[in-house]
Amino acid sequence: MTNDPAAPRPAPAPSPSASPFEIPLNPLGVADPLRWLVRGARDFARAPAIGLFFGGCFVVMGWALMKVFERAPAYVLALSAGFLLLGPLLCMGLYRVSQDLEQGRRPDFGDAVLAWTARPGALAVFGFVLLVLEMLWGRAALVIFAVSFDGMPDFKGSLLKLLDPQHLGFIATYAGVGAVFAGLIYAVSVVAIPMILDRQVDAVTAGLTSLRLVLTQTGVMLWWGLLIAVLVALALLPWFLGLFVVGPVVGHATWHAYRAAVPPAPPEDPQPPRGAPPPPTRGDAG
């Protein structure tokens, strides 16, 4: 094990040829999400400069969304779609830092920023899937607006107008549809991006493995999703400034969630040298 950042990085472990439905998953406990957060906070403390950089990126993204909402609310959804694709790329840098710390390596800022270049093809496919889900979510939101109001309402950049009692039906429907799409995006991506970084798997395999994890251990994964939602919501209150810390801690914790849920891929069976005699069978013994 080495701490030299210039040392060549080992290639991701090759994944078995089994289907995504045959990749084993570890059993998880209710206390595990709290352990992931503790380990994520520890990783952030061990590489604070890199973590604050990515946290700053999350803060800037939040500020951009607020400014767009104030001046041109119609473009918020399109900007959110772009951030939905940019967010996993940023988190991938945090996963790289946790991976380096796990392997006894010193995290490198440049390596973290360019972590997405390790698997651009798989990430592009997965990003396209997220974009399609975001577009469907946006279309559903427009339909809800059209059914609930006589034309598109003008809230003039104020969220408080949505809290009018006459809008309760709209709020409930909008929140319900949003919860369905948010839950689907969470289910297919909760461990997919770390898995793509760690293994030679395609986007479909990573997404289906993530979905299997949520469907087979729903209670723990709902608890983990609730923790993330509460922490991010609290981080948004002081002008998004809490994302400086919450963003990287949750990112690092997600790597540890993946590590806890998906066991390492077994190494491929070594092949005998070309020309070597085949191993003896039982009938040859004696």
Please supply descriptive tags for the structure shown above.
single chain, 286 residues, mainly alpha, 10 helices, 63% helix, 0% strand, disordered C terminus
The radius of gyration is 22 Å
Order of helices and strands: HHHHHHHHHH
Mean pLDDT: 82
Helix/strand class: mainly alpha
What percent strand?
under 5%
Helix content: 55-70%
**Distance between the terminal alpha carbons, to the nearest Å?**
43 Å
The total of beta strands comes to 0
Total number of helices: 10
Major β-sheet, in short? Answer: none
Q: Which stretches of 5+ consecutive residues score pLDDT under 50?
A: 13-17, 269-274, 281-286
Overall geometry comes to globular
Structure report:
The protein has 286 residues and is an all-alpha fold. The chain contains ten helices and no strands. It has helices at residues 32-46, 48-71, 76-102, 109-113, 120-148, 168-189, 192-198, 203-216, 218-236, 243-261. It is globular, with a radius of gyration of 22 Å. The two termini are 43 Å apart. The model is unreliable at 13-17, 269-274 and 281-286 (pLDDT under 50).
What's the structural blueprint in terms of helices and strands?
Layout lengths: L31 H15 L1 H24 L4 H27 L6 H5 L6 H29 L19 H22 L2 H7 L4 H14 L1 H19 L6 H19 L25
Helix pairs in contact: 1-2, 1-10, 2-3, 2-10, 3-5, 3-7, 3-10, 5-6, 7-8, 8-9, 9-10
